[in-house]
Amino acid sequence: MASTHALASGMGGMRTAGDLVARLQITRGMRLTRAKEYVAGKLGCSLRDLADPVAMHEIRGELGLGRIPVQDLTYANEPGGLEAKFRIADVLDVPINSVQRFRRRAGIDG
Amino acid sequence: MERRITTRLGDGSFIELTRSEIEADLVAGSEMGAKRSKAPLLGDDEIGHLLDIFASEAKFSAVDIGDEVVLSFDGCGNADAGTPISDLIIYQNHHGADSVELWHHDYSYKAVKTVLSFETQAMKDAQMMVVAPLNYGAMPDLGRYSMPDGPVPNWSELLPLGRIAEARASQVEAGVHATRDMVHVAEAMVEAGADGLDFDTSGAAGDGDLLATLNAVQQIRAAWPDAGIEIGMASEYVLGMHGELEFEGRRLAGMWPEDQLAAATAAGATIFGPAVNVNTTKSVAWNVARACTIVKPCTAAATIPVHMNAGMGVGGVPMSAYPPADATARVSRALVDILKLDGL
Question: Which end of chain A is more exposed for a tag (fewer CB within 10 A), N or C?
């Protein structure tokens, strides 16, 4: 059922910019159109690119926003996990709770 | 003689209907939704679009390119992947989840409180690995606070005895406990790095359940302004188990999605999830038309994202452990196209 919804109507999650648009909804309560426009503006891409895995694979790689490993295509030398969320917080200019707490607990920025 | 098209009932079983019969079901479903909720009927163009979706013999159906929405999965995984974190990674990497949710098998804030230290450690560890927004979710579950499982007299036993005042008082007292537990779990989860909280199947025990949730959300919003908060409903209509409870001057009992949305927004939610339960004896087309009719005023009025519940037995998705892809895809597309949803 999860995969059916993803294929029928979903943005695509980390394969695209779905997780980024979701952050604006979750943190800022932005409705979909505004959230998509905000993310596209920050990424410098078109609205159509946001749900396109081909375009977003390149954009996520360039900006260090995290990419999903696919068989022998791994990204151990790129930001992943919490590292990628540091980049996402900067690029989208949104607070990410786990990033803020990591900074505080690791003694980054004082 | 009209060709018969393979479609499904709300329990997921196959039936064969003609195009005319599917259209009649769509109209009847919309009329049933409008009759109950007082919402306007779907327009001819909307019925026509739904008819194109449900009269198609294709195995799959999908929204147009560019019309994709955000999928915020509650209760990610089936606890069959070894660890909860593995479930989250699978949903993020393989199911296209736009946000994911950590959850406990006993999906209730009251139950989670007793294992909170383990759940918060799982949240902290998961945040190191997961990139997509990661929420924590459970049910407000007001019934857990009534005897014999909880501390207050059981209103379901008091009501049949005609002890109305006592039944109402016990629900109010249970609500105080439930709100305190929800805020307690939220505080720990925010400290562990959660992106947000999901209050799933709110109102399942009636207006007292929803009030406890709204009070918790109000406190959480005041304490953590950037926290995501999703209120997902249990059904289309708030049952008046108490009957006189109000939130910010509005009576909760009898609320339909548009008013539920207003209450959730006023409390401080960032995402609202309406729910419409499925009639298993009617066709999926009938159920979707009814659901769209009931929820349409809600999405039209929304100032926060609306993620309609579309799991097994809600929103039109068949009540089956394995919802068929042909039916689920049609429901997914139909809800997004007709309701202009922000997500599912």
Answer: C
B294 in Cβ contact with B255 (< 8 Å) = no
User: With an 8 Å Cβ cutoff, are A19 and B227 in contact?
Assistant: no
| Whether A21 contacts chain B with CB within 8 A | yes
Q: Provide, as residue numbers in chain A, all residues whose Cβ is less than 8 Å from the Cβ of B323.
A: 1, 4
Whole-complex ipTM: 0.97
**Cα B122 to chain centroid, rounded:** 24
**A4-33: per-residue pLDDT in tens?**
999 999 999 999 999 999 999 999 999 999
Q: What is the pLDDT of residue B74?
A: 87
Q: A71-107 pLDDT, tens per residue?
A: 889 999 999 999 999 999 999 999 999 999 999 999 9
User: A86 to chain B: nearest residue by CA?
Assistant: B131
Cα within 13 Å of Cα(A21), Cβ side: 33
What residues in B contact A8, CB-CB < 8 Å? Answer: 60-63, 328-329, 332-333
Chain B partners of A68 at a C-beta cutoff of 8 Å?
92-93
**pTM for this prediction:** 0.96
